[in-house]
């Protein structure tokens, strides 16, 4: 029935009618879930939407799906005549070489980049490292995006004003801390803990990047992070088993059903806050904030600690063999010289 696909509470929709004609958008992890629905919406607004994904075969099918199926807010006739462009770039965030190659291709082939949406994410059920030596969830969800953002920032400076960087986080952030002495969680790995701390890292990164841009007098690039809501993605469905819940337990099934009915969103609903941060006219004057349900939300505990954010920034740089610098403009030049 219809209400099984609806969320009774906390389901704000992006109401902005803003067009993105002439704008270029890069979305990581756009071959599935909320990334795919975000791409569909921004394509409908006239943007050149770049789907930066790992699986090329799957992404090619997604492009055809987006071209043939409009978002629910517009008619098929309007969709056929007033859309943008779709392009695919290969990006495997579990490989820093792939991140660098993708950035190099974007910088070479694209005249401008106006919006970067760091959406891709995983939750690995068992401990593993990438070939770069970093815990996989940490690298895919956070560290790879950290590097990609730094590499694309000079192009975004040239594309400003009105450029935006949108980092997808999660409300799970407030349940964890980051252990800088065990950054790869080699002593106490769990799927949930690894995932949640990357979402905390995305908030800290957002706030610290906004601060550094401001102090460097780099204007015209705003930074946002957000909780998209509870969505029944593969990650969400796997968390029950990762925390030791047996799906065959009858009371758990009832609780899960009620929670899903009241609070979970479908993927189009889950994409709304990403879209809001990317296009809304009001948010054009905001930076460094955390959003939920198309509104500014409050952050708690470590997410509000400036020194904690600065420490994460410095640790992230060293994980990438970069030396942190106070001069942000000089730092970006160093990153480009060393990484490209």
> What proportion of the residues is helical, as a percent range?
40-55%
Strand content: 5-15%
In spatial order, strands of the major sheet run 3-2-1-4-5-6-9-10
Count up the helices: 12
Q: What structural class do helix, strand and pairing data support?
A: alpha/beta
Largest sheet: 8 strands, mixed
Indicate the mean pLDDT: 91
Spatial gap, N to C terminus? 52 Å
Poorly predicted regions: 1-8, 239-250
For the structure shown, list the relevant keywords.
340 residues; alpha/beta; two-stranded parallel sheet; 13% strand; globular; disordered N terminus
Task: Kindly describe this structure.
The structure is a single chain. With 340 residues, this protein is α/β, with parallel strands linked by helices. Helices cover 46% and strands 13% of the residues. The chain contains twelve helices and ten strands. The protein has an eight-stranded mixed β-sheet, sandwiched between helices. A hairpin with a 2-residue loop joins β9 (289-292) and β10. α6 (191-215) packs across α11 (306-319). The chain is globular. It starts with 23 loop residues before the first strand and ends with a helix. Mean pLDDT is 91; it is low at 1-8 and 239-250.
């Amino acid at each position: 029935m219809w209400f099984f696909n609806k969320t009774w509470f906390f389901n704000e929709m992006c109401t902005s009618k803003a067009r993105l004609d002439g704008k270029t958008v890069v979305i990581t992890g756009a071959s599935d879930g909320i990334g795919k629905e975000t791409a569909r919406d921004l394509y409908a607004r006239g943007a050149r939407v770049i789907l930066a994904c790992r699986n090329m075969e799957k992404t090619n099918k997604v492009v055809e799906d987006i071209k043939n199926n409009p978002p629910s807010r517009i008619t098929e006739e309007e969709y056929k005549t007033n859309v943008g462009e779709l392009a695919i770039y290969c990006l495997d965030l579990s490989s820093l070489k792939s991140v660098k190659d993708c950035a190099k291709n974007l910088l070479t082939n694209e005249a401008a980049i106006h919006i970067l949406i760091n959406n891709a994410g995983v939750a690995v059920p068992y401990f593993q490292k990438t070939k770069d030596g970093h815990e996989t969830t940490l690298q895919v969800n956070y560290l790879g995006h950290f590097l990609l953002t730094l590499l694309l920032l000079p192009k975004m400076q040239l594309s400003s004003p009105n450029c935006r960087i949108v980092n997808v986080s999660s409300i799970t952030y407030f349940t964890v801390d980051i252990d800088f002495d065990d950054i790869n969680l080699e002593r106490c790995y769990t799927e949930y803990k690894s995932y949640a701390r990357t979402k905390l890292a995305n908030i800290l990164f957002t706030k610290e990047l906004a601060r550094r841009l401001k102090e460097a007098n780099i204007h015209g690039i705003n930074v946002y992070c957000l909780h998209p809501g509870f969505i029944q993605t593969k990650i969400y469905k796997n968390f029950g088993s990762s925390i030791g819940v047996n799906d065959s337990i009858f009371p758990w099934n009832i609780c899960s059903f009620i929670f899903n009915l009241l609070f979970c969103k479908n993927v189009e609903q889950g994409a709304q806050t990403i879209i809001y941060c990317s296009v809304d006219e009001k948010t054009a004057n905001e930076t460094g904030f955390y959003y939920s349900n198309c509104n500014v939300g409050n952050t708690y505990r470590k997410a509000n600690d400036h020194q904690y954010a600065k420490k994460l920034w410095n640790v992230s740089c060293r994980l990438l063999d970069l030396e942190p610098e106070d001069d942000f403009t000089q730092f970006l030049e160093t990153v480009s010289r060393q990484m490209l």
